[in-house]
Hints:
Elements: H1 12-20, H2 40-43, H3 49-67, E1 72-76, H4 93-98, H5 100-117, E2 125-128, H6 134-144, E3 149-154, E4 171-174, H7 177-186, E5 188-193, H8 198-212, E6 221-224, H9 226-232, H10 235-241, E7 253-255, H11 258-266, E8 269-270, E9 273-274
Parallel strand pairs: 1-2, 1-5, 2-3, 3-4, 5-6, 6-7
Antiparallel strand pairs: 8-9
Helix pairs in contact: 3-7, 5-6, 5-11
Amino acid sequence: MTKDRRHLMRDSHEDQRTADQVPQTPQTMSPSYRLAFADEQFLLRDDLRPVRWQLELLKPELLMNEAGVNSTVVLFGGARIPEPARKVTARTQTLADLSAFYEEARRFAHRVTEWSLETGGTENVIVTGGGPGVMEAGNRGAQEAGGRSVGLNIVLPHEQAPNPYVTPELAFNFHYFAIRKMHFLMRAKAVCVFPGGFGTLDELFEALTLIQTGRMKRVPFLLFGRDFWERIVNWEALAEAGTIADEDLQLFKFVETADEAFEAMRSWTHAGERREHIPGREE
């Protein structure tokens, strides 16, 4: 809410303060007497799930609008990928080898953020899942470049507090995976996917499906690490089987380094159409 907005009617803050000051009686102490918007137990009822969905969609939208985050560059990637200095602690040799992508994510986010700051820092803001691994690397690179970045955390049993590089006022926490994924893509001007596990695959294929079906505008879609992704997904087999179209293989591009990704994003080509600038947000 705009701070200097004036109302003729009492607002909810005033009514909440008044409600907190009433004498304690059997009536005022009853849960039924609590103001609905201030009654946590009421808001957590199963029947209120649609309201919670709306709140979870609206809160980050309003706060990002107020912070001037007009567009984003999305980084998806594994939480278990360590920074190179800690690769000796990796659970597998593959994770140790993949630590190189931590540094590429960091460098890429740094370069994108420097580019963003040239035009005021409101466009192409880095957004990650806010956790460790590749996500940490993205937020870290943005901070080291002197810019802001968004972290979209989610409540999980074993994870994940926001990493320390997320801009505090742009650190969000979600209960619903679906709403979180909407916020990843609502402002996206590019999607960059690093090696990862089930969560990364979920994010990758949902975003690709939205683009494939025309529900989302085509944007630069970059997969870091051809060797990893071609071992995980047999892309050509999908096209050969006819379960995707041949042209769907052109929806994304493999890259290996931060510099290659940055240049690919700046000069994204799809179906013969050259785009000198990244397309804007689609309403």
